[in-house]
Model the fold of this input.
Amino acid sequence: MPENANASPQAVSDLTGSWNLDPQRTTIQFTTKALWITTVNGTLRATEGTGTVAADGSVNGRIVVDANSIDTKNKKRDEHLRNADFFDVKKYPSMVFDMTDVYLGAPGQSTLKGTLSIHGMSRPIEFQAALRTESDEAVTLDVHTNIDRSEWGLGWTKMGAGLHNSVTIKATFVRG
Done:
């Protein structure tokens, strides 16, 4: 069972302080299936984010993603993904992950817990993450997870379109 960061402040003491997302060094990629056989790859852009590691070891943070930034290299598909059938970016311009807790596991491995808000719906979620300390001033979280988009009200589908998306995030934070 992972160790709770709150119970072991020494484990995160070198990360104590405020952190800001570096959007230029952050990537969000996703993959899904269309018509059961065609793989669709795409990207989204994180626009802002923060994190705080308190002296007692508690951790919280936030990453904001621009829903309008969705890019699958197919203009017609991207326009459809932005409309009311999917992300409805005019009404819901952002996706937000609010981190409320971190559990430390094996060296460099963590479990991030929080709330993911997409399309006006917020749901609790847990991600496995690899934490890489690039320097005293920069850390990167590498996350790979699977998301069932229907859990956030994104259930529109044509026959064979996938509801499950594989998501890979590399989020780099610098000291604030």
